[in-house]
Specification:
heterodimer, A: alpha+beta, 5-stranded antiparallel β-sheet, B: about 425 residues, alpha/beta, Alpha-Beta Plaits, Rossmann fold, 3-methyladenine DNA Glycosylase II, Chain A, domain 3, 3 domains, 11 strands
C-alpha cells in the first residue's frame, strides 16, 4: 500500500458551536482504521486545538488529515492575519485572543503549545497578512 | 470474545421499518433489514433511545417477571429511588416500602441507602492520592460501556466503586444472612427494580470480569402496577425509609455530583450530551474538574424507559418526598480511610475496537478509500430509506459487505428516470 488516505474538512469561521466537529469526525475515521487509542487521542487533541485557532484567529480555513502507512499528517491552512512572533505564540499562556473570546473560555494561550506537545513534529509557515499553514506529524 | 447480551427486544409484528430508531441510535447500531429493525449487539450500548423513539411501541426492554421467581424463600426488593417519584401525592416512601412487602417481597433494601454510602466513599476516593481526574461516575452502565467502546483513554477516570445497585445487593444479602441464619444462600434472591434496560444488561453481562450480585432485574413499570393495587389498601407501614435527601437525589441528574459537596463538578444527561462531554474531556477542552456525572437518560434515572411518569414530574415529586428528610441517613465512621474492598472493583471496561474495518491496517485503509469513493456518489441527504442511518453508513455497510440487497432509493429513482428519458 503506497497511497495515502485524506480526510478533508472545511472549518467554518463563523461558529464556535461547530468548532470541534472535524476533530470528532477524524476520531471516528481513525477508529475505523484501527489505530491505537493513544494515537487517536493525540491526533484528536492537535486537530481540536488547530480548529479552535482557525475559528478564533483566522475566520476558519481548511484542515486535511492524511493517513499514511507510518504516520498521520495534519495540515491546517488558513487565510488569517498570520502570526507576528512565532516564538512568542509558542509560549504557554500567551494569547492574542480578544476579551470576548476569552469570556467564552477560549484563548488560554495553550493552543499551539498543546499542538506541539501532542505531535512528533510541527512546522509553522506563516506570513503576516496572508495566512498560516501548520503541518503536524504523528508517527505510527 | 463473549457476545454481549442486550435487553432490547423487537416485536416484529409492530415494527413497520420506519427508520426512526435507525437515525436516532447514537452508536449507529440499527439497520432496517427486510423491513424490520435489526440491532448489532457489538455496537449497542443499551441506552434505550430506540425504545424511547419508537412510535409503534415495537421495541421494549426485556426483563424478568417477579411472578416467575416466587419459589425463592427470601425475596428482597432493591427499589431504585426513581420508583418513589412515580406516585401522585406520595409524602412518605414508607408507603411504597410497605407496598413492596404486600405484593410478596420479604424484605426491602433501598438502593438510595446504598447510594449514600457510595457518596461517602466517593468523597474519600476523591481525596486519595494518585487519582486520575476528573473522576467519572460509573453508576450509569451505558456510560461505562460507551467509554469501553469509544473513549478507552478515559477508562482510568471511571470511579472504581461499585454502583449503588450492587452495593445494595451485597448489603441486603449480608443483612438477610445475619438476621435469618436459618436461610441458605440459595434461598435468598435480590430483585433490582429497574428504571432502564441498561441495568438488565449489566446484571446479565457483568462488568469486565466482575459478576453482578443482583439475582433478578424486574421492570419498574411492571412492579408499579402491582404496587398501585397494594398501596390503595393503605396498610400501616411496618418499614421505615432508611435514606435521606442525598440518596433519593441520585434519581435525577446532578444528584450524585451535588452530594459530594464539592463545587468542582459537571453533570450532564441525555446520551448525545454525554458523548459531547466525553469528547471534550478527551480533548482536554474542559476546565479542571474533580467529578463528572453522566446519565444516558434525559433528566437522569427518572428518564429511564421503564418508568411510568414523565421525568420532570417524577423529579418534582421526589422533591416533595425529600422535603422532610435529613440530608443523609447513612454515614461512614471517621476512622474509615479507604473504601472497603468489597465495594471496589479493579475491573476496567475492556476496549473493543468494534468499528475497525478490517484486522490489518492496510486492508482498513483500502476499505476506507472505497467508502469515501462510494459516499461521494450517494445523494448525501441521509434519508434512511436504504436502512442505514446515513449515506456514509450505507457506504460503509456496502464496503463491509453487510448491506445485502439494500440499495439507495434516490439513486435508483434517478437511474430509472434517466433510462426513461433516454
Amino acid at each position: 500500500m503506497s497511497d495515502k488516505l485524506t480526510f478533508h474538512f472545511d472549518v467554518d469561521g463563523e461558529s464556535f458551536v461547530s468548532a470541534g466537529q472535524a476533530s470528532v469526525q477524524v476520531k471516528k475515521n481513525l477508529r475505523e482504521l484501527g489505530l491505537p487509542p493513544e494515537v487517536i487521542r493525540r491526533v484528536s487533541i492537535a486537530m481540536y486545538e488547530g480548529e479552535i485557532n482557525m475559528v478564533i484567529h483566522a475566520n476558519g480555513g481548511v484542515a486535511d488529515v492524511d493517513v499514511y502507512e507510518d504516520k498521520v499528517v495534519i495540515v491546517l491552512d488558513d487565510k488569517g492575519p498570520g502570526i507576528k512572533d512565532v516564538a512568542l505564540a509558542m509560549q504557554e499562556g500567551y494569547s492574542t485572543a480578544s476579551d470576548q473570546v476569552r469570556s467564552l473560555g477560549f484563548g488560554a494561550g495553550m493552543g499551539l503549545p498543546n499542538m506541539k506537545r501532542y505531535t512528533d513534529d510541527m512546522v509553522i509557515e506563516t506570513v503576516v497578512g496572508v495566512g498560516t499553514k501548520i503541518t503536524m506529524t504523528i508517527r505510527l | 470474545m463473549k457476545e454481549t447480551r442486550h435487553s432490547v427486544v423487537l416485536d416484529k409484528e409492530k415494527c413497520t421499518g420506519c427508520t426512526s430508531c435507525v437515525r436516532r441510535c447514537p452508536t449507529e447500531a440499527i439497520r432496517i433489514v427486510n423491513g424490520k429493525a435489526q440491532i448489532d449487539p457489538d455496537r449497542c450500548i443499551d441506552c434505550g433511545e430506540c425504545i424511547r423513539t419508537c412510535e409503534n411501541n415495537a421495541k421494549r426492554a426485556m426483563c424478568s417477571k417477579f411472578e416467575h421467581y416466587l419459589h425463592y424463600k427470601w425475596k428482597i426488593a432493591l427499589p431504585a429511588p426513581t420508583l418513589f417519584g412515580q406516585f401522585n401525592g406520595l409524602d412518605d416512601v414508607d408507603e411504597v416500602l410497605q407496598g413492596l412487602l404486600d405484593i410478596g417481597f420479604d424484605d426491602v433494601y433501598e438502593v438510595s441507602k446504598a447510594a449514600e454510602l457510595v457518596t461517602a466513599y466517593t468523597r474519600l476516593y476523591l481525596k486519595s492520592a494518585p487519582v486520575k481526574k476528573p473522576v467519572i461516575s460509573s453508576a450509569c452502565p451505558v456510560i461505562a460501556r460507551l467509554i469501553s467502546l469509544r473513549f478507552p483513554y478515559l477508562k482510568d477516570n471511571l470511579l472504581p466503586i461499585l454502583p449503588p445497585m450492587e452495593v445494595a445487593a451485597i448489603l441486603a444479602r449480608e443483612k438477610a444472612r445475619r438476621e435469618h441464619p436459618e436461610l441458605k444462600d440459595e434461598d435468598i434472591a435480590t430483585f433490582f427494580i429497574s428504571p432502564c434496560p441498561a441495568k438488565v444488561s449489566y446484571v446479565r453481562n457483568g462488568y469486565g470480569g466482575y459478576k453482578s450480585h443482583v439475582d433478578v432485574v424486574v421492570g419498574l413499570s411492571d412492579v408499579y402496577f402491582l404496587l398501585l393495587g397494594a398501596m390503595k389498601r393503605g396498610r400501616t407501614p411496618t418499614l421505615t425509609g432508611e435514606s435521606g435527601m442525598i440518596g433519593i437525589g441520585w434519581a435525577s441528574s446532578g444528584g450524585e455530583a451535588t452530594a459530594l459537596l464539592n463545587d468542582s463538578y459537571l453533570s450532564a444527561d441525555g446520551i448525545e450530551n454525554c458523548i459531547k462531554v466525553l469528547d471534550s474531556i478527551e480533548n482536554g477542552n474542559i476546565p479542571q474538574l474533580e467529578f463528572v456525572e453522566l446519565n444516558a437518560c434525559p433528566g437522569g434515572c427518572v428518564g429511564g424507559v421503564m418508568t411510568i411518569e414523565n421525568p420532570f414530574i417524577a423529579k418534582t415529586r421526589l422533591q416533595t418526598v425529600r422535603r422532610f428528610l435529613p440530608v443523609s441517613k447513612n454515614y461512614i465512621s471517621p476512622d474509615e480511610i479507604a473504601v472497603p474492598g468489597e465495594f471496589v472493583t479493579d475491573e476496567k471496561p475492556r476496549y473493543k475496537p468494534i468499528t475497525r474495518l478490517a484486522d490489518s491496517f492496510g486492508e482498513s485503509m483500502r476499505m476506507m478509500a472505497e467508502i469515501q469513493k462510494l459516499r461521494n456518489t450517494l445523494p448525501g441527504i441521509d434519508c434512511g430509506a436504504c436502512g442505514s442511518p446515513t449515506c456514509r453508513a450505507f457506504a460503509e455497510d456496502s464496503v463491509r459487505g453487510v448491506a445485502g440487497d439494500r440499495c439507495c432509493v434516490v439513486l435508483a429513482q434517478k437511474r430509472a428516470k434517466e433510462e426513461n428519458d433516454a
